[in-house]
Design goal:
Layout (H helix, E strand, L loop, with lengths): L4 H14 L1 H21 L4 E10 L4 H4 L12 H9 L2 H10 L9 H14 E7 L2 E8 L2 H58 L7 H44 L4 H22 L5 H34 L6 H4 L2 H80 L5 E6 L12 H26 L6 H8 L13 H33 L5
Antiparallel strand pairs: 1-3, 1-4, 2-3
Helix pairs in contact: 2-13, 2-15, 5-7, 7-12, 8-12, 9-10
């Protein structure tokens, strides 16, 4: 069943009144505990210095693109790394009086760790760094904070000079290394060009043009060969035709002409004489002898032709050889054969030249790959070398800028001061917290007990939740003895509260008079 806020507050007040003694005891214990803690809580004094990191000056726009000044983005991180270094920590221990008691190395390390817990380095914007130190002694806090700022500035300026010097030395070393690489590649390139004079840029296209020209010559020569072959075959045919014509002037033709002539004489004699006439008989015998001679000649020629055909040669009669036209054709045939042999020799030589060009092209192709690699290495090394030369000059100018403090500079924007008031939790905070917590904690415990206690405190809960009717509410009736005890208890509580405030006043006075540290 949900209760109204007024009922909860009323019940809480009633429960607190019933448990007033326990609440008072807990209130006193908590208040006095925090009061005592506040009285012995050490005072913390904070001294700080603000340093401005100046990255812009009149030289920066003038030297833009030529030299880069030493700069850092995380100034607070860099400052923290520098300040927490052993060099600055040792200086602070010496200047702040931590070494007066001659602590051992282990004790010095513990002091350093304690110092680091009290040092705070933060970036507060606009290139401002706040270096803060907390200590129980105001003068030591001031000296430490001031020393931290001074040491950071001097160490920062020294480190940026060393950084620019290191950058220049590194780039100079790289320049020397790439100079050696560049010289080595130049020697390799010079040696390769001396050993391979044919390998040069554009040689491959020149070879391609030459090979194409040779192939074109071969095509033209082959065309001439075909034309010469046709001409040769034509001359051979003409020679065969001329031989056929000239055959009439050979011995066979002579025999036939003689026989024809004798046959004419025989026919003439037959007109006047008989067959037994001596001249007719003589003519017949002459004609018969001529026919036998002609037959013998024909057989001999045919045998020679068969033999020539078998041997693959051409049979030429002696009379044909004496023919001027035949001799002219033979001369042309010989010239044609010579030209054909020349053209075939030209093709053979041209093919050899093409093969040589192909071999040369393969050699040049491999050489060009090597030449391209050497040239590329030379160009890359030369570009890097030239870039490193420019960077070395920029680094030299940057080094000069840092030496003249014209680059990244540190200025004290707010010097450290001696703190007059402590910072952090003080006695008044503990005193006020003691009173406040002393009230809140007991009341909170009473409220928690109300939530966990199963007892029924309101009659309407019985009626609504259990369903049993309630006739009347009867309050607790106290007698005279109980009233007297209650009044005495209240008086004691008043006295205790008064004494508690007296104790608070005494501690406050002692703290104000610095009797309590």
């Amino acid at each position: 069943m949900q209760l109204a806020l007024e009922e909860i507050l009323h019940t809480l007040v009633a429960e607190c009144y019933v448990r007033r003694n326990s609440i008072f005891v807990l209130f006193v214990v908590i208040s006095l505990t925090l009061l005592i803690v506040g009285s012995v809580w050490p005072k913390r004094y904070t001294s700080f210095t603000i340093i401005h990191v100046d990255q812009t000056n009149i030289l920066q726009p003038l030297m833009h693109g030529t030299a880069e000044t030493t700069a850092s983005v995380d100034h607070a991180g860099n400052a923290r790394e520098i300040i927490f270094g052993d060099k600055i920590m040792d200086e602070v221990l010496k200047e702040s009086g931590w070494l007066k008691t001659n602590p051992s190395e282990i004790e010095q390390e513990k002091i350093k760790q304690e110092l680091k817990t009290g040092i705070s380095v933060v970036d507060i914007g606009n290139n401002l760094i706040r270096i803060e130190y907390r200590d129980t002694k105001p003068m030591r806090a001031f000296i430490t904070a001031k020393k931290l700022g001074d040491l950071f500035i001097s160490e920062g300026e020294r480190s940026k000079i060393e950084e620019s010097q290191a950058a220049y030395a590194f780039i100079d070393k790289q320049v020397q290394e790439y100079l050696q690489k560049l010289t080595s590649v130049e020697d390799e390139l010079r040696k390769f060009r001396s050993e391979n004079p044919d390998v040069r840029p554009g040689q491959e296209s020149e070879l391609s043009s030459r090979i194409a020209s040779l192939q074109s010559n071969i095509e033209q020569t082959r065309l001439l060969i075909r034309e010469t072959t046709i001409k040769r075959d034509s001359i051979k045919e003409q020679l065969s035709g001329e031989a056929a014509i000239t055959i009439s002037q050979s011995k066979e033709g002579q025999y036939r002409a003689k026989i024809s002539e004798l046959q004419t004489q025989l026919e003439t004699l037959r007109l006047d004489y008989n067959e037994t006439y001596p001249d007719i008989v003589r003519l017949k015998h002459q004609i018969e002898d001529l026919k036998n001679s002609m037959t013998s000649e024909i057989q001999m020629r045919e045998a020679a032709q068969v033999s020539a055909r078998r041997s693959g040669s051409t049979y030429i009669d002696e009379s044909i050889l004496l023919n001027p036209l035949y001799q002219q054709l033979r001369s042309e045939l010989s010239a044609t054969e010579t030209q054909l042999a020349t053209l075939n020799a030209r093709i053979s030589e041209t093919n050899k030249m093409i093969e040589n060009e192909y071999n040369r092209a393969r050699k040049i192709h491999g050489g060009e790959a090597t030449l391209t690699k050497l040239t590329r290495d030379y160009q890359v090394n030369q570009d890097i070398y030239q870039d490193l030369l420019r960077r070395r000059e920029n680094a030299n100018v940057s080094r000069s800028l840092d030496r003249e403090n014209q680059g990244l500079t540190f200025k004290i924007q707010e010097p450290a001061k001696v703190p007059l008031l402590p910072t952090g939790l003080r006695f008044i905070h503990f005193a006020a917290a003691g009173l406040l917590v002393g009230l809140i904690v007991p009341i909170g415990l009473v409220y928690l007990n109300m939530q966990l206690d199963p007892r029924i405190r309101f009659s309407r809960i019985i009626t609504n939740d259990i369903g049993i009717p309630v006739l009347a509410d009867i309050n607790h009736i106290r007698n005279t003895n109980e009233d007297m005890k209650e009044q005495s208890n209240i008086i004691i509580l008043y006295i205790g509260t008064f004494l508690l405030f007296v104790i608070y006043g005494v501690f406050s006075w002692l703290k104000f008079m610095d009797y309590l540290q």
